[in-house]
Amino acid sequence: MATKKRDPYFDNAKFLLMILVVFGHMMQPFIENEQWNHDLYYTIFSFHMPAFIFISGFFAKSFDPQKRAPVATSFQKFIVPYIFFQWTYSLFNRLAGAEEHFTFQLDVPN
């Protein structure tokens, strides 16, 4: 069994992106004070997570079209939990008093 050799370039890139996540969350309370804080905050948040996901996905398991899951399995794994948790959050918001009426919308995540 061949062992994959890690590339330190991508490990360092992911580390830098994680640092940007922490930095962005720390500067969030200050984005209303100065325009450059606001611009820097939205610049960081416009690329750091997509870049992290792209780098992580690049090294994910390879895709084998012969073993792909049918649409029904994908539906059960992703859509059904989304609908369940969306309904649960909507119910919780109603019971907690955050919403006056029970509202369940799949296109507006809570």
UniProtKB/TrEMBL annotation:
List the InterPro entries hit by this protein, alphabetically: Acyl_transf_3_dom, Nod_factor_acetyltransferase
Recorded hits in PANTHER family, A to Z, give: MEMBRANE-BOUND ACYLTRANSFERASE YKRP-RELATED
Pfam families in the record, alphabetically? Acyl_transf_3 (PF01757)
Q: What is this protein called?
A: Membrane protein
- Which EC number(s) does UniProt give? 2.3.1.-
Question: What does the UniProt keyword field contain?
Answer: Acyltransferase, Membrane, Transferase, Transmembrane, Transmembrane helix
Which residues are listed as membrane-spanning? Answer: 12-28, 40-60
Q: Which residues form the Acyltransferase domain?
A: 8-96
To which species is this protein native? Answer: Tetragenococcus muriaticus PMC-11-5
Q: Does the keyword ATP-binding apply?
A: no
Provide a Gene Ontology MF annotation, just one. acyltransferase activity, transferring groups other than amino-acyl groups
Per the record, the domain of life is: Bacteria
Which enzyme type, at the first EC level?
Answer: transferase
Q: Is Secreted given among the entry's keywords?
A: no
